[in-house]
Every structure is written in structure tokens, then in C-alpha cells.
Amino acid sequence: MTPFGTAPDGRPVERITLRNAALTVQLLTRGAVVQDLRLAGVDWPLTLGSADLAAYVGPLGYYGAVVGPVANRIAGASALIDGTRHDFPPNEGGNLLHGGRFGTQARVWDIASVGETSAVLRLALAAGDQGFPGARVIEAGFALEGATLVLRLSATSDAPTLMNLANHSYWNLDGSESIAGHRLTVAADRVLETVAGLPTGRVLPAAGAFDLRQGRVIDLSEGFDHNFCLADAPRGLTEVAELVGQSGVRLRLATTEPGLQVYDGVYIDSEGFAGLQGRPLRKHEAMALEAQRWPDAPNHPGFPSIRLDPGQTYRQETRLSFDRL
Q1: What is the pLDDT of residue 288?
Q2: Alpha carbon distance 151, 128 (integer Å)
Q3: Where does residue 72 rank: exposed (0-12), middle (13-18), buried (19+ CB within 10 A)?
Q4: Contact between residue 229 and residue 240 where contact means Cβ atoms under 8 Å apart
Q5: 73 has which bridge partners?
Q6: Which of 133, 151, 233, 301 measures 20 to 30 Å from 176, CA to CA?
Q7: Does the keyword section mention Isomerase (predicted)?
């Protein structure tokens, strides 16, 4: 571990290095961020990040982080739990995005354990924090298994609450300034219809640019910021997506989650902060593949539930496997 600066609340931020023969991964205790990821034999980082903590406090607030306690959006920043309305501080117009301004990505997590190839970070959230009921404990476990980064997320609560965590890493497998030319495959035959980023409630057949079952080369005309419906509930670990750069570097994503938010990075802007390659980050430089449950679920009874009750444990496992074809 090495110091990475001081968070706005005065707490020190640490950088943790996990390493084996295939992968080197840097983690930050602020936000449980995957700050850097390198594949042996490849001369560039495969994820977007920065060497400056101020970038994460500013425009890179979501980059590489575990976002939550509810990833994606809640319309109107409001939801019912057992008939009681809970209001959350909106941070995207009148809506809640990724748990709000002070979501899990903006907190310094405690180090529960750390070793050469694995680490567990822990975050305690008080009842009422950001409007969410329940005293909650969230854990993010990272482990290297060969050329695979395994992310295991879990959470408990002492009162009925909402929980939907996601890793928000951005991927560019070529070290280039644009994701264009990467080939994306997603094993989903349905996609959520959205208006202004919010689900309408309609689940549509994946068609045209959104039918990625056979894979297609990204040309940036698609406008991806959509939840691809993988299943109707969490399930056993299943390979669901593949991203291949023009360099031949490949990412395969397997997850237990029923949704995958695919976002083409149209609003990427590091506002002058340098990325890992020493230059500012720009529009469409990378793509986020966010394994999660479906967005705005509390306001759509037919969507997979994100409710977490006392005595239950929320669990997610997502595996990111890398190689070069």
C-alpha cells in the first residue's frame, strides 16, 4: 500500500497494488476504485484513471468506482418501501444517480484485508444516510485469478432498504483516444426503453444497433446508455459480454447480475486532469460495462427487485477476464 492523498473529509486515501504474472491492478480506498489495470505484454492501461486524487474528487468521481448504494437512476429521487416514501438528495436534475453526490464512490472505505493478489474493502453507512433506511455494511472483494479480476460485492442492512451496486470502470483496450473500432458482444435479447436516461417501463426486443448478440463494431452512432436485460433475476455466474480492441486485446465479462448498463462515454471529460497516459480524457474515449440490477427498479414493479431486508445478504460476483488474440 502507498499513500494516495487526503480526501476532502481529511481521511487518508491509500493505493493498493494487486499483482500476479498476468495482471497488475491498482485500487484506491476512496470509492473502492479500480484506478489502473495492466495486462502482461501490453504497454498501455486498459481502464481510464488518473494519478491525481483531485481528479476523483472532481470530474472522475465515478471512474472505476463501486457506485451505490443504488447504481444508475431512481426517477424523481424518490421510492416507496413498505408504503413509506423515502426521498433522496437529487444529483441529476430531479433524479438520483449512482446513490447521489455522496454515494459509495465518494467515501473512503476501510481495508478489511489485503494480500498480494486480493483485498477486501468495507464501508459502513448509517441509517438515513442520503435518505436510505437501514444501517448497512458493504464489502467489495477484489481477487486476481490468472488473467481474471474477480469482484465480489456484498451488503447487509438492519432495516428494509434498497441495494444495487455496480463497478463503473471505463474500458479502452487499445490505449487510443476513442472506443470506436472496438467490437462489442452482449448476450441480451431485450433492452430497456429510456427517455432522458430513465426507463419508461417498457422492455423492448434488442433490435438494430442494440442487437449485439452476434457482436458489432462500435462506430459511435448508436448512442449507448442503456440497460441490456440479461435475465429476470440474479442467477449463477454467466458470461454475458465481450469487448475486443483493434489491438486484439479482449475483455470477457461474466456476472451474476440480470442487467448490464452499456455506456459509450459521450460525456467523458477530465476537465484538464491528466489520465494514466498523461493526456486529458475526452468524449467517447472508453466504454463502461456496468453489471447491475435494472435501473429505477423501485418504481417499476415488474423489474428485478433491489430490496434488501434484514437477515438477507446482497451478493454480486463479476469476473473480468483479459487476453490478447
Answers
A1: 98
A2: 27
A3: buried
A4: no
A5: 97
A6: 151
A7: yes
Side chain identity at residue 99, one-letter code: G
CB 235 within 8 A of CB 256: yes
Q: Which residues are the active-site residues?
A: 168, 290
The CATH number assigned to the domain with range 2-324 reads 2.70.98.10
Phi first, then psi: give them for residue 205, nearest 5 degrees.
-60, 140
**Are 238 and 222 in contact, with CB atoms under 8 Å apart?**
no
Distance (Å, whole) CA 107 – CA 11: 10
Q: Which residues of 221-240 are buried (b: 16+ CB within 10 A; e: fewer)?
A: ebebebbbbbbeebeeeeeb
Nearest to 50 by CA among 252, 271, 321: 271
User: Smallest Cα–Cα separation from 23: which of 175, 142, 150, 148?
Assistant: 148
d(CA 189, CA 207): 8
- DSSP reduced 3-state for 184: strand
- Phi, then psi, of 57 in degrees rounded to 5: -70, -25
Predicted confidence (pLDDT) per residue in 119-129, tens digit: 999 999 999 99
Task: Judge residue 174's burial from the number of C-beta atoms within 10 Å of its C-beta, 0-12 exposed, 13-18 middle, 19 or more buried.
Answer: buried
**pLDDT by residue (tens digit) across 176-206?**
999 999 999 999 999 999 998 999 999 999 9
pLDDT at 223: 92
Mean pLDDT of 63-81: 97
The residue with cell 467489495 is 140
Q: How confident is the model at residue 123, as a pLDDT?
A: 98
DSSP states of 95-164: BEETT-TTSGGGSBPEEEEE-SSEEEEEEEE-TTGGG--S-EEEEEEEEEETTEEEEEEEEEESS-EE-B
Q: How remote is the C-alpha of 291 from its chain's centroid? A: 7
